[in-house]
Design brief:
Helix content is about 35%, strand content about 20%. It is of the alpha/beta class. A 5-stranded mixed β-sheet has the order 4-3-2-6-9. Strands 1-10-11-5 form a 4-stranded mixed β-sheet. The chain has a two-stranded antiparallel sheet with strand order 7-8. A hairpin with a 2-residue loop joins strand 2 and strand 3. The longest helix has about 35 residues, at about 50-80. It is elongated.
Length: about 300
Amino acid sequence: MATAGLVGGYCLLGQALAQGSAPAATPEASGVGAPVAWGLGLQPAAGPVKEAIHDFNTLVLWIIVAITIFVMGLLGYVMWKFRESANPKASRTSHNTTIEIAWTVIPVLILVVIAIPSFRLIYYEDRARDADLTINVQGRQWYWHYAYPDHGNLAFDSRPIPEEDLKPGQPRNLAVDEPLVIPVGKTVRVLTTGQDVIHSFFVPSLGVQKYTIPGRTLETWFRADHAGTFYGQCNQICGTNHWFMPIQVHAVPEAEFTAWVEQAKKKYAQADGAAPAVAQAAPAAAAPAAQQIAALPR
């Protein structure tokens, strides 16, 4: 039964890879990636990284289902076969070599089946291949700092909107004053670092999660396959009120993104035409992407 479960899990994974993700659920269909009341399972995928996570989650789920059914069936059989009324005199048999080998080898094989796609997924998430743009993310208590080194080091802070200032449609503890804007269909390299303590840049619907550690630069990537607004939060216990570090990613068509960049450069520029002070003060995370990537350990 366990073997059948493993085969079924692989078949299901193959179908998922061949057919892609299922049609989006209600929040994703409206272009929003956010938690929903009484929601079960993972948030609908908005990009390839999250789709790969969904596939791996499905594989592990079916393996767990197969193991659970097998163990429950085995327990039921033992309770029926070796009940006191059927076996008034208990057996003293021990050290069954075949069973001992089986319950050692089979779990090892199951772990190998899980480990191989797990390592592939970790490697897939690790580095961007042929990224279209780079965004530097710095975690600061209690807000985020974003920089676009490919667009003149455009940089700004993103802070949560107080509950009393929320507008209709803005989710509590998730909406921010300045969202992270990205173009649809473009591979976005994310370089993270921290200013004070360890934070975590986490957007579930895009499948991106990376620590922001002071003194270190880490890399990951994501891509939004359709326009929409996708929410996340710092999920690292980084101090008091750490949950007030929401993330709002706004994916827009490329033309709209280009227009936003031009407007943002003017919005954050100083009166004398110099680069924004916040951009000048940005740490090593705002250095050219090529230099940072070259310095990363291989």
